[in-house]
TrEMBL record:
Residues 121-152 are annotated as: Disordered. This is Dynein axonemal intermediate chain 4. PANTHER family: DYNEIN AXONEMAL INTERMEDIATE CHAIN 4 (PTHR12442:SF12), DYNEIN INTERMEDIATE CHAIN (PTHR12442). It is found in: Cytoplasm, Cytoskeleton, Flagellum axoneme; Dynein axonemal particle. One of its GO terms (molecular function) is dynein heavy chain binding. The gene is WDR78_1.
Length: 358
């Protein structure tokens, strides 16, 4: 008979072991690791981004992207230098040789890994004019006077690009993929790569009251004095941290904000949210749609919780069933709420540390 293990012995026996460490101090120069992405084809290839959290470095500093292999953890396979700290990464699903990089100064760049050049093939900072190449071509090289073009196109992000996602628009579209970014400036931008990097505004995130926040004072600055609460809420933008598109419907997407809210949006409407989901008491750092069942999605937040949601109501019998929809350890408070509305979490998991990725 195998010897019994105490609780402490069981935990130590099942604790993950430290195998090796990817580090190159001669290259990173004290920069912080900001993001990690595994390559979906070469599964031993890990991409790591580096930047500095100091606000002074966002416009004057530099960043780095290193490609590490499990076969050689002592030195990176390749290094890409950027003119600002890197805050987000995304490999293309259709073209795995493409990688998009979001920068702390608001820029977006795309590299083709088949080329050995250190320069990106597309760079938003190289686009001339406030709205990119499309507006200049439409106006014959001069600034466009039309208000419609100015409303649909915008310059690059003016603050940190927190998340990037490649969106598969379907085999009948050209190009098949588009790139979407979300930034601290409250903008959700879609990048068209047919002729340079042309960008269109999918959504400008507006601040909304969140009853679950401990403090939710929207009018705190001197610029709000004399303005009504509704006016200030309508015109103050909210920082966006994450974006996720539905796999089977590229026109629908979810965004997580610093207000602790998740908004469901459509690419057909850039003025209002389709629905808002309440339940987090701090900023939502990551949202991910279920690739197998479209109504389900996960979120994680600075309130130390991970929550499971559904955009469709679930029958009471299914909720109280054997666990085909949810585990038996579901939060009882959440279970009591989901029978009322679909914009509250199905269940909630409490973490012992801050949650920033799912």
């Amino acid at each position: 008979m195998a010897p019994s293990l105490s609780k402490r012995g069981f935990m130590s026996a099942n604790r993950p072991q430290h195998l090796f460490c990817f580090e190159a101090p001669q290259l990173t120069g004290g920069l912080s690791t900001t993001n990690l992405k595994w390559h979906q084809v070469n599964q031993d290839l890990l991409c790591a981004s580096y930047g500095d959290s100091d606000a002074a470095w966002r416009t004057s500093g530099s960043g780095l992207v290193l490609f590490w292999s499990l076969k050689n953890p002592s030195h990176p396979e390749r290094a890409l230098e950027t003119n600002a700290g890197v805050s987000s990464l995304a490999f293309s699903d259709i073209y795995p040789n493409l990688i998009a990089v979001g920068l702390q100064n608001g820029g977006v760049a795309i590299w083709d890994l088949r080329q050995r050049s250190a320069s990106p093939i597309l760079d938003s900072s190289a686009q001339s004019g406030p709205t990119g190449g499309a507006q200049q071509r439409a106006s014959g090289g001069q600034q466009s006077q039309g208000g419609s073009a100015a409303s649909t196109l915008a310059s690059r992000h003016t603050d940190v690009v927190w998340d990037l996602q490649w969106v598969d628009r379907g085999p009948d579209k050209f190009p098949r993929e588009s790139l979407v970014s979300i930034g601290a400036d409250g903008k959700v931008l879609q990048w068209d790569m047919r002729k340079g990097l042309d960008r269109a505004v999918l959504m400008s995130l507006k601040r909304s009251p969140n009853p679950d926040l401990a403090t939710n004072v929207l009018n705190t600055g001197p610029q709000d004095r004399g303005a009504t609460s509704q006016d200030s809420q309508a015109f103050r933008q909210s920082c966006g941290f994450c974006v996720s598109f539905l796999k089977k419907d590229p026109s629908m997407y979810l965004v997580g904000t610093e207000d602790g809210l998740v908004h469901r949006c459509s690419t057909s409407y850039n003025e209002q949210y389709l629905e808002t989901y309440y339940g987090h008491a701090a900023a939502v750092y990551k949202v991910r749609c279920n690739p197998f069942w479209a109504p389900a999605f996960l979120t994680c937040s600075a309130d130390w919780t991970i929550k499971l949601w559904s955009t469709k109501p679930i029958p009471i019998e299914a909720r109280r069933g054997s666990g085909s929809y949810m585990p038996k350890r579901a939060d009882s408070t959440a279970l009591g709420r989901i029978g009322v509305a679909t914009n509250t979490p199905l269940q909630s998991y409490q973490s012992t540390d801050l949650c920033d990725s799912v």
